[in-house]
Amino acid sequence: QGQLVESGGGTVQAGGSLxxxxxxxxxxxxxxxxxxxxxxxxxxxxxxxxxxxxxxxxTYYQDSVKGRFTISRDNAKNTLYLQMNxxxxxxxxxxxxxxxxxxxxxxxxxxxxxxxxxxxxxxxxTQ
Length: 127
Description:
The chain has 127 residues and is mostly beta strands. Helix content is 3%, strand content 48%. The strands form two sheets. Strands 2, 4, 5, 6, 9, 10 and 11 form a seven-stranded mixed beta sheet that branches. The chain has a four-stranded antiparallel beta sheet with strand order 1-3-8-7, with no helix packed on it.
C-alpha cells in the first residue's frame, strides 16, 4: 500500500515561502490516487487545505489558502508538493499529506475519505 513521508517544514518569517514534499514509498504509492494536504494547529481541529486528482488536472483549495498555496504532483517521482507563499503566522501548524483509495469520487471527498496519512511536518511562521 505504501507509506507517505512529508518533508520541507521549518520556521519562516511572515511573508516568506516554503515548499512541502510528500514522498510515497512502495510501488504506485501516490500515482493513481487523489492526494491532498491537511494541517492541524495546536488546540484546533484538523483543516483540509487542498486536493489534487491523480494526473494533476483538477485541484481544490480551501478559501484560507487559495491564491497563496499551490498543490502539485510529480507521479514519476512519486511525490506530492505544496508550495506555500506569503505565509502568515496563522499558517503555523503541523502539515500532513494524505490520500484516498476511493475512485470516481470528487477530489473534495478526500476531506472525509483519506485513508493513508503521513506523519506530518511542522511549519512555524513568525511575525
